[in-house]
Amino acid sequence: MTTTKDPRSRIQDLCSEALAATSAGQIEPILSHLRAALHEKIQGESSWVALCERAAVEQDPRRLLELVSEINRLFQAREKGLESPNEPARSDEQSTF
């Protein structure tokens, strides 16, 4: 089984494993892990959207800063996960929304 932290890579790996399976006994555990990975990815995306929706209507400046900080943290984590190993990391000065 794969243990990749990036949900997209994990889903791709599990799909490849499922396609390579030759029996129902092999595919059942893979499908179980695939369902969990898909659920995790969907929840992660919906929490991102929920944070943005909350930030859009937040009236308290302190709470808004907390929400924006969390959105930024998630954005940076996703950006870091999407970088190619051969591609140099972008500095904060180059990063834009």
Care to count the β-strands?
0
The secondary-structure element order is HHH
Beta-strand share of residues = under 5%
Q: Which parts are unreliable, with pLDDT below 50 for 5 consecutive residues or more?
A: 87-97
> Which structural class do the helices and strands define?
mainly alpha
Per DSSP, the total helix count is 3
The overall average pLDDT, rounded, is: 77
* Oligomeric form: single chain
Instruction: Tell me the span between the first and last alpha carbons.
Output: 36 Å
Please give the radius of gyration in angstroms.
18 Å
Helical fraction: over 70%
Question: How many discrete structural domains?
Answer: 1
Shape: elongated
Largest sheet features = none
Give me the secondary-structure topology:
Blueprint (H helix, E strand, L loop, with lengths): L6 H14 L3 H34 L3 H22 L15
Helix pairs in contact: 1-2, 2-3
Descriptive overview:
The structure is a single chain. This protein is an all-alpha fold. The chain is 72% helix and 0% strand. It has one domain (7-82). Helix 2 (24-57) packs antiparallel against helix 3. The longest helix has 34 residues, at 24-57. The chain is elongated and about 55 Å long. The model is unreliable at 87-97 (pLDDT under 50).
